[in-house]
Design brief:
The complex is a heterodimer. Chain A is of the alpha/beta class. Chain A contains ten helices and twelve strands. Chain A starts with 12 loop residues before the first strand and ends in a 12-residue tail after the last strand. The two termini of chain B are 33 Å apart. The chains are: A alpha/beta, B alpha/beta. Chain A: This is ABC transporter ATP-binding protein.
Chain lengths: 334, 331
Amino acid sequence: MSTVEPAVATPTLEVRNLQTSFFLRSGLARAVDGVSFTVGRGKVMGLVGESGSGKSITGFSIIGLVDPPGRVHGGEILFNGRDLTKLSETEMRRLRGNRIAMILQDPMMTLNPVLRIDTQMIETVQAHDRVSKSDARSRARDALGMVGIPSPEERLSSYPHQFSGGMRQRVAIAIAMLHRPDLIIADEPTTALDVTIQSQILAEVQKLAREFGTAVIWITHDLSVVAGLADDVAVMYAGRIVESGTVDDVLDRPRHPYTRGLIGSIPSRITQGERRLHQIPGMAPSLLALPKGCAFRARCPRAAAVCETPPEISVPAPGRTLRCFRPYDVELVS
Amino acid sequence: MTEPVIELDGVSKRFSRKQDVFGLLATRMGLAKRPPEVRAVEDVSLRIMPGEVVGLVGESGCGKSTLGRLVAGILPMSDGRVLHRGRDMSTLSAKERKRATLSVQMIFQDPYASLNPRMRVADIVGEAPRVHGMVEGGYQDYVAGQLRQAGLDPAYKERYPHQFSGGQRQRIGIARALAVRPDFIVCDEAVASLDVSIQAQILNLFMDLRDRFNLTYLFVSHNLAVVQHISDRVVIMYLGRVVEEAAVADIFKRPNHPYTQALLSELPRIDVRRKAFSAIKGELPTPLSPPSGCHFHPRCPFAMPRCSLERPRLREVAPGQRSACHLNDLN
């Protein structure tokens, strides 16, 4: 089924210095500015940030779905060692939906409302594999069963509107899994769902990563989900990764003031009964009018004169990156 | 003993399709069935004391927003009574009812949909107090004061809602609700659409305003972490019924109802790493044909034969903790 055999020790995805910008009449918006990270086989990476931080555009850049006036104009996206930015649209189409799949926040963006589920799933199977319609249909049925949809045979002939929100999202995940992709990019797929449905979906994703070695990029603004699901985490702010590392490292010992602010603003059992949450003052800057130097400077409690020059990426420990002149010292916050 | 600000007594809300004349006639003559009914809220009783923050939690479709709207008086109820400071809303004179209605305000989930896009911020906030003659001093000053209170720069008051970010829009909604000086506020998923850092700002604002104006909140949310942070007491709903109610510390420490237990165990926590997610089996059944007996029994791991036959009553299982589960009768 798979056409690309990943070489041993080559990570599924390696993004190096990715640059994606929107060339607007009102100026240049650097949505993704020098983003680098690696996702290994069977690993889940949480890409965390607030609205407008560039986390979704990073996902769209990898799968090659950035629409004009946006364009990937720098860096490398090495997928099983091949640079995706160098591929033609035909080659990209062969990968998309086959080796790389995407799950969106709203499953109705994936599903066609006027086609039955079986039509859509058979189409997806036959887009990449030469199989008969009945074989494609049975693969579709198996995929639906795998994501926990009861009586998949009957549900195949339903229309999207006949499913609940959580079920629809599972159909979208089943479609993403049809070709057992090497990489799944999940863009806030559980944000609109209830806690109970969310954990059903998270359970499916965990299974996928463990059993089939699928690498997953989980894009979200919810650090609590990342804590439970991911192996590694990268925190984005204004188009840049400001801090990354293993989940335990980053969440237990955050060093960037933004990461620390984010963690502090999450309501949790620690803040129960306390009247106030930590809050980051102000709001995220517009990408069209980023301050000089560190983009977080205006909201940062530790900002100093040095922050007016752009901070470079440093590697304070193996597997850890940081983009800050005045990080917090390593100490345990609990 | 102090009097509750709001007391619900056996409140129910049923929705059904409106029938036309022929439909009514056909039903009357026994030729057609009555249109199906959705029991969005079923026999809910609740007391909310002054200064309390009550969190109302449940999955989508459990009736929590409908209950919030019934409390705020936006929807008429099918059965039961709402008492405002001990007085039945429906028995008040027109003038008194107007006062009582004004003193209960609502803040909505979607600040994009709940603000009129063609009105300037000053009018959105100032219209109601002007109509009701509540403006003291100059109108412009009053509006400016209300905006400042909600953390907005009064210089923006000539702007339209689309010129604001999501967090600022939510602040406009808060300023609008507070402008008629209510003592009770229903927040319907008021922070659900906001980023974490903005959510923290708004939650802090809610608490500051509560201290300043002695407000009481009914905080409707599906986000248990937010509810745990902000509430004094938590009410859990499932398919139109209250299944458990307790002080926030108790419900998180020793949840009684199997549904509450399942909800809490699935809540992602920042300090829980590489969790094995499992989830309650099945989905929320349709409220058009809810399961018999205890609504939760088809999904409940502890279900007994009795659960599908008899509706469990809410009863006290510990001081201040009420739960509707037959398991409590076993021991």
